[in-house]
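Duplicate of #3305? Posting structure anyway:
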């Protein structure tokens, strides 16, 4: 039978909040069991270097052992180098030689020093002090129940604030009870795919090109994904009435700023998509991933306003505040609400309540609007610098096209037929410390499709942005 010790101690056994569980197995003797337990705690890091251990008298009392047993165990571990002990001082865990560097995958080890990949804002702009003040205000007035289990829909404070904000800025028609708060677009898409599958839907149309990971999320729910072509005026919603798409029951689109081409869906295509949904009872998932950022054109309102009974509007704080906030929202047609809430309940129960209250405060006080406006100006300046440098690299040859640069946080740089291949450019960029994303992986079937670079201009911190753009311009030159 093992004897366990859990306590909080200083060297004199006075509680200071340091807890440690030692499971002493006396099968081979109590001293050997204690030695093994302490040795394991040191090796696995539960007792870090420099930690002061309780006196032999205190530990003996805690474990119900003879003091001599504890003293002998300490002495053995001192002789092995795991512990150090000096006359008149307490016994401590010995320092360890630092391990050598460990090779990690790029995404774990920090990646390349320069980063122009799309999908991430400049997280150094996160409004830390504003967020702290919002959190303090929210916690000062919130009921204690905020720290318990809550509504899978999300906090009503945030849903109410989102309903007002989305109506004002994006033209979304909603009531708070139609909104479900999530951890972001990936979860929203996964929940909708699960619900669609449960409803008997089998085929989903998704933009081509589009983000391959999003196709995988839908496919993992057991749905078949078919390609919906994108041209210079957006997704080809006019094709949905053809025989090829007869089995399609849902369409996933980015109408305000198509990813990765950047083109907005023209009014005729938007009407065709809304009419298809009404006529067939189909579902449209509108991913408004960066609708707050526009520079040279008027904002494009949400498609959801044209057919609120058939369009799910989804958004998140990932591009405005940062992906680490893990807050998103789905505005659902009323018949879908309970099914999505039930799927959310079985997936993770609820989204973090305190963060929801902080975001609700930012929205209600318009601090969120002020932050978005400041970021918009910052990204406008970055976009102008990027365009200037790339046009200089083109040197008047007329090869450079930057579709979709009027809005968003990325642009597509198509590669002319006689330019270096996409794979070669990505390899050359990596050799110079620059992370880039190619267009090839965005196609449903890449073979024979145009190549290019999807360049994000938001991610680098300010002190690395110009350097990253210079490397890119040099490569393209």
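Output from current build:
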């Amino acid at each position: 039978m093992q004897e366990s010790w859990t306590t909080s101690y200083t060297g004199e056994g006075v509680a200071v909040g340091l807890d440690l569980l030692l499971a002493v197995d006396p099968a081979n003797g109590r001293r050997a069991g204690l030695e093994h337990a302490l040795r394991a705690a040191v090796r696995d890091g539960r007792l870090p270097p420099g930690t002061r251990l309780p006196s032999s008298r205190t530990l003996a009392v805690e474990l119900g052992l003879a003091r001599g047993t504890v003293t002998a165990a300490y002495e053995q571990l001192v002789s092995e180098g795991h512990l150090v002990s000096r006359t008149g001082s307490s016994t401590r865990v010995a320092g360890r030689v630092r391990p050598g560097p460990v090779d990690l995958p790029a995404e774990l080890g920090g990646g390349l020093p320069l980063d122009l990949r799309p999908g991430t804002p400049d997280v150094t702009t996160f409004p830390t002090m504003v967020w702290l003040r919002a959190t303090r205000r929210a916690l000062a007035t919130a009921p204690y129940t905020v720290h318990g289990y809550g509504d899978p829909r999300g906090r009503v404070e945030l849903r109410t604030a989102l309903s007002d904000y989305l109506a004002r800025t994006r033209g979304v028609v909603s009531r708070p009870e139609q909104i479900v708060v999530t951890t972001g677009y990936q979860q929203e898409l996964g929940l909708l795919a699960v619900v669609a599958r449960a409803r008997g839907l089998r085929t989903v149309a998704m933009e081509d090109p589009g983000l391959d990971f999003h196709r995988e999320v839908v496919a993992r729910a057991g749905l078949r994904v078919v390609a919906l072509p994108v041209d210079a005026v957006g997704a080809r919603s006019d094709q949905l009435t053809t025989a090829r798409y007869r089995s399609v029951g849902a369409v996933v689109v980015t109408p305000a700023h198509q990813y990765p081409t950047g083109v907005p869906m023209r009014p005729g295509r938007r009407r065709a998509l809304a009419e298809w949904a009404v006529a067939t009872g189909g579902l449209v998932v509108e991913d408004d991933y960066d609708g707050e950022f526009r520079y040279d054109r008027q904002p494009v309102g949400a498609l959801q306003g044209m057919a609120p009974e058939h369009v799910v509007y989804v958004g998140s704080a990932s591009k405005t505040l940062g992906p680490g906030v893990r807050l998103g929202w789905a505005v659902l047609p009323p018949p879908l609400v309970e099914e999505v809430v039930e799927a959310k309940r079985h997936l993770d129960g609820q989204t973090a309540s305190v963060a929801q209250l902080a975001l609700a405060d930012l929205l209600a006080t318009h601090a969120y609007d002020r932050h978005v406006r400041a970021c918009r100006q910052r990204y406008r300046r970055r976009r102008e610098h990027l365009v200037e440098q790339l046009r200089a690299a083109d040197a008047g040859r007329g090869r450079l096209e930057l579709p979709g640069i009027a809005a968003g946080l990325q642009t597509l740089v198509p590669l002319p037929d006689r330019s270096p291949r996409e794979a070669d450019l990505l390899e050359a960029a990596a050799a110079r410390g620059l992370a880039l994303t190619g267009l090839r992986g965005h196609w449903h079937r890449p073979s024979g499709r145009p190549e290019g670079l999807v360049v994000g201009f938001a991610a680098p911190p300010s002190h690395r942005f110009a350097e990253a753009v210079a490397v890119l311009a040099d490569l393209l030159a």
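Confirmed duplicate; merging threads. The domain at 114-122+374-476 is CATH 3.90.1150.10 (Aspartate Aminotransferase, domain 1). Residues 367-394 form the longest helix (28 residues).
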